[in-house]
Amino acid sequence: MTTIKINDLMQQSGVKFGTSGARGLAAEMTDQVCYTYTKGFLQYLEADGELKKSGESVAIAGDLRPSTGRIMAAVAKAAEDMGYVPVNCGRIPSPAVALYGLKNNAPAIMVTGSHIPADRNGIKFNKCSGEILKYDEEQIREQVVEVEESIFSDKGFELPEENIDARIDYVNRYTRTFPKGCLQGKKIGIYQHSAVGRDVLIEIFSGLGADVTPLGFSDTFIPVDTEAIREEDAKLAKEWSAENGFDVILSTDGDSDRPLVSDEYGTWLRGDVAGILAAKYLGADSVSTPVSCNTALEKCGWFADIRRTRIGSPFVVASMIDASFAGCKKVVGYEANGGFLINSDLPVGGKMLRALPTRDAVLPVLSIILLSIQERKPISALLEGLPQRFTASDRIQDFPTEESARIIRRFEEVSAIDEAFGEAFGSVESIDRTDGLRVTFESSEVLHMRPSGNAPEFRCYNEADSEERAEKMQRISMEILLKLKG
After folding, report:
1. Closest among 12, 15, 19, 18 to 29, alpha carbons compared
2. What is the CATH number of domain 187-384?
């Protein structure tokens, strides 16, 4: 019997743990590592009082990566060995298994690396009450777990028979809440690639009356990042739209909790702009969003309560909880990656849509399409009605976190920012260190730099009054940062 502390496992295995879950190279996410992380998580829920007796269910799902099935089986084995009943929800979207957990008062565990390359993977943990927050992360790291090493072999473990209830519940969440036929007459393209929700999306949107065309199916995993859209995906969407006359094209990242949605010309919307439009359709009275998101949110004047947070859904969730405690009744949140969260039961078409305080890709897309129908405008016209603030973002991959931190420290003084970026962007007006370094220049243009929280990447965001200027700022920023990397 081996005894290990989760904090030590992080250092020894190379698989890091945080509020986004455990993530690392698939080769380093051995059965023993995944088993140990899962036991640590469930052990914490026992100590916290969320799990009270053996025999309770633990929901497990996964994305379409090659390593996912093996890891799901190791997770299920850990739950079973602790006396719980692992429920194999199959390959479904992250919000679908989270919804199942909330409905059944069960922990929900999603095996996914989201948008990162196929040679990596991860395990996302949800408590019976929702996402783990920073406090939970700290407590899970302190767990000391006993593991019997003799149970592990090259054969791995077997998954229980698949239970399709979570998938059915997720589809019904939309097809039985929103008005029947509400998308009648809409022509929608669905870019499937290797997204785990690709068939679910077809089922939901065709179930609401849309004329749906599947596009771009792939048997090979494609790491689609909704915050850093690949040039080939931008080109494909424009071509598909021109050829087919779609009203909208939609897609998601690998675990289908973050959306991509286009206008009628096949131009992908930025996630933080999509969030504003979705919040408007839902009649939100409180919106929580990270500091990196488009400032058109404040400038549009549509929302009574706006809360800016650090980057990451746990911070958005914590902010939404605070908003609900403060008395707000229609509380939503969104991120720059497009993930949309609701912390209130919301009225939709005479029915109530249950709160789902975790990233969801379906609701923002559906809301934007319904807003375009409600206002009798194409999606491009909805965008034109927003204050004209444009954002661009990109990332430098294979960029160690230590190197990212060194660059951020380099800019502790305004003079250092002026030296590196002053010629291109002008004088500094203000600095925000809520998450990384966000610089607003006197021109009102914005530069935001931060290390990724779940991958060895350095992210850069820019904002300006025109799309061309934001994209130019992005190119300049990336060139400067690459030089600083050496």
Report:
1. 15
2. 3.40.120.10
pLDDT 10s digits, 336-390? 999 999 999 999 988 999 999 999 999 999 999 999 999 999 999 999 999 999 8
Cβ–Cβ under 8 Å, residues 394 and 474 = yes
C-alpha dist (Å) from residue 425 to 155, 428, 469: 57, 8, 11
Per domain, the residue ranges of the chain are 2-158, 187-384, 390-485
Do the first three CATH levels of 187-384 and 390-485 match, i.e. the same topology? no
More confident position, 434 or 237: 237
**Structure-block tokens of residue 219:** 């048997």
Tell me the two tokens of residue 23.
């993530």
Fold exhibited by the domain 2-158 = Alpha-D-Glucose-1,6-Bisphosphate; Chain A, domain 3 (3.40.120)
pLDDT of residue 18: 85
Of the candidates 327, 320, 284, 318, the one whose C-alpha atom is nearest the C-alpha of residue 302 is 284
The answer to whether residue 13 is catalytic is no
Q: Which of 13, 67, 114, 404 is catalytic?
A: 114
Count CA within 13 A, CB hemisphere, residue 427. Answer: 2
**pLDDT mean over 64-71:** 97
Tell me the three state secondary structure of residue 177.
coil
User: Cα separation of 253 and 173, whole Å?
Assistant: 20
68, 91 contact by CB (below 8 A): yes
pLDDT in tens, 166-207: 999 999 999 999 999 999 999 999 999 999 999 999 999 999
Q: Which residue has the tokens 């077997």?
A: 158
Q: How high does pLDDT run on average in the chain?
A: 94
Cα–Cα distance measured from residue 347 to residue 344, given in angstroms and rounded to the nearest whole number: 10
* Residues contacting 3, CB < 8 A, separation 6+: 144, 145, 146, 147
For 84-133, where are the alpha helices, taking DSSP H only? 94-104
> What pLDDT score does 248 carry?
98
Residue 401 in tokens: 């976190």
| CB of 252 closer than 8 Å to CB of 258 | yes
pLDDT band at 486 (very low <50, low <70, confident <90, very high): low
For 390-485, CATH number out of 3.30.70.2570, 3.30.70.240, 3.30.310.50, 3.40.309.10 equals 3.30.310.50
The three-state (H, E, C) secondary structure of 448-464, written as one string: EEEECCCCCCEEEEEEE
